[in-house]
Amino acid sequence: MAGACLHSCLSMKLKYVKGFLTLALCLGLWNCSSSEESRVLPQPNAMTYGKGSFDASLLEREPARFRQTLVEGITAAEGYRLRVTRDSIVLEAADEAGLFYGQQTLRQLQRDNGRIPVVTVEDAPRFAWRGFMMDVSRHFYDTAFLKKQIDAMAALKMNRLHLHLTDAAGWRIEIKAYPRLTGFAAWRTAPLWKDWWFGSRTYAEEGSPDAFGGYYTQQELRELVAYAAERHIQIIPEIEMPAHSEEVLAAYPELSCSGEPYKHPDFCPGREETFTFLQTVLDEVMDIFPSEYIHVGGDEAGKAAWKTCARCQARMKREGLQNVEELQSYLIRRMGAYLTSKGRRLLGWDEILQGGLAPGATVMSWRGIEGGLEAVKAGESAVLTPGSHCYFDTYQDAPHTLPEAMGGYLPLEKVYSFEPIPDTLKADEAKRILGVQANLWCEYVPTVEHAEMMIYPRLFALAEVAWTQPEQKNWADFHRRALVWCAAFEEAGYHPFDLAHEFGNRPEALTDIDHLAKGKPVTYHLPYYPGYAAGGDAALTDGKRGGWTYGDGRWQGFIRRGRLDVTIDLGESMPLSSISADFMQVCGPEVFLPARVVISVSDDNENFTELVVHEHEVVRDGEVRFVPYGWTGETTARYVRYQAQSGAFGGFVFTDEIVVK
């Protein structure tokens, strides 16, 4: 129907997405100055303003002043061309999605006086995959909440909603062939994930007094899929395998290696019944979700039981598999082939690379972008969702100003800074990067208000990363627009983070510190963890203090025997009055304060004198803490030895600088 006028289509669209338009129009009425600067999110790739404006009230009296048309001249999928003059509005696109996104831009341009500036917009998304993942396993959210987020995603021109439907904390999708999944595995014995995870980790019968959780019926999910499709959003279901499956194996223990409930988190790939179960589940999932991609998880499999399981070992021998990594790959490849036979494609976290990537599989790269780059270099495709920029379960501001989170620190500016395509990729490889995705894991997010605070405004930034060409991005301009959108979202009934009163990074991280040990050599008696090397051997005396997260490249991590043990050579003996180092505690990712700190000095690097010993009991709690352990007094020495020992919980010990004065 290229070239045809779509007045009737617009009329129908206005009718069947009425709930969405209520939000979109609210977001279009900015209640701000008459400036014609863009208040659109995400930022269009080309926008030129003219003089004057169009009176939107004319559309009610003279609808012919608004023409929207499918044309052949626009080649980019989901792209559109919008022209607003003083007399008319013309919207052209190559497909229905393009028309839809042009409508969102038009509504966002509307001012509080009901006028739309004269403007020409040439626009198309940078990436085809513009995603957001909602974890509904750790805490259950009803479909009304999900529809509300779909409305917001549509206004932000995002087009993939990934639902994390299954995990140890609860199975959330009705599977008629296996009723125990919703009659038992969907219900746990504590309402808060934290209490359950560090408590009994047991499940309950549906309807019992100690049952907390929930699930979606197949009919509810079909309605949700239709609701999203009307807004050009595809829902991607995730069914975890082989790990994160404690809830399944409690309900159906015969699918584990031992055959006993509450013993293993991983399916047994040595049992043929495992594949019968997974294929049957996927059949029902595919009947509900028409998405091209089906996410199978594939992450964080411990595989410990496989090493001694007779069935797994027999499977490995029959299939010629050398190790349990190849056994995991066997499971993923087999499920990938099954999905392919049904006309679908397998999507999994980057651990599906272990043991060899299944042909045709798409990698969702979360442990950095390296897994995604490996996939595209191998000729497959990838979606990039690195924890450093896309994990919204982290703090977005100073931890003491916010509810408990998983840890970390991901402020709005860092999300906005994400550049998915490195210069090292060839053009044909870059094309296989499908796009980007934000993830909200909900272990520490028990309410809808908390969830929305974690999502917005960070999803504004990721939406612009996904849609807008990098040369069109501008942090200062985006921040201005994000403030306006936060106010509009709040008016529309959302609960965004209070961006206008952002505290910012840890003050110690804002400027370098000068002290006697700065630039001095450090001897490590025990190695630091290579994944958290910070500045390497110079990290503890480089003058750089860490921010709110151990992942910022300034905090150095120690996990071997839970110990930090280093000696600093000051070069010559000198008077000393203070030696100190900061440590952090973030219990969610197993980062704890040290239980014992010893600070010693020496003139010959052989005979050390203890200056102070700090000992305390490490307590697991929800508070993120930064605590200095040090000594003050008067002494003279050349060598400073600093030792820190972890407590009963083990985990990581992190410090950023040993400050000597």
Strand-helix topology:
Layout: H1 7-16, H2 18-28, E1 46-55, H3 58-61, E2 66-70, E3 80-84, E4 89-93, H4 96-109, E5 115-123, E6 129-135, H5 143-155, E7 160-164, H6 180-183, E8 187-188, H7 193-197, E9 212-213, H8 218-230, E10 234-241, H9 246-251, H10 272-288, E11 293-297, H11 310-319, H12 324-341, E12 345-349, E13 362-365, H13 370-377, E14 381-384, H14 387-390, E15 394-395, E16 407-409, H15 412-416, H16 427-430, E17 433-440, H17 448-455, H18 458-467, H19 475-491, E18 522-524, E19 556-558, E20 563-585, E21 596-602, E22 609-615, E23 625-645, E24 653-660
Parallel strand pairs: 2-4, 6-7, 6-17, 7-10, 10-11, 11-12, 12-13, 13-14, 14-17, 15-16
Antiparallel strand pairs: 1-5, 3-4, 3-5, 8-9, 18-20, 19-24, 20-23, 20-24, 21-22, 21-23
Could you describe the 3D structure shown?
The chain has 661 residues and is of the alpha/beta class. It folds into 3 domains: 7-123, Chitobiase/beta-hexosaminidase domain 2-like (Chitobiase, domain 2), CATH 3.30.379.10; 129-501, Alpha-Beta Barrel (TIM Barrel), CATH 3.20.20.80; 507-660, Sandwich (Jelly Rolls). Helix content is 27%, strand content 24%. The protein is built from 19 helices and 24 strands. The strands form 5 sheets. An 8-stranded parallel beta barrel has the order 6-7-10-11-12-13-14-17, surrounded by 6 helices. The longest helix has 18 residues, at 324-341. The radius of gyration is 28 Å and the shape is globular.
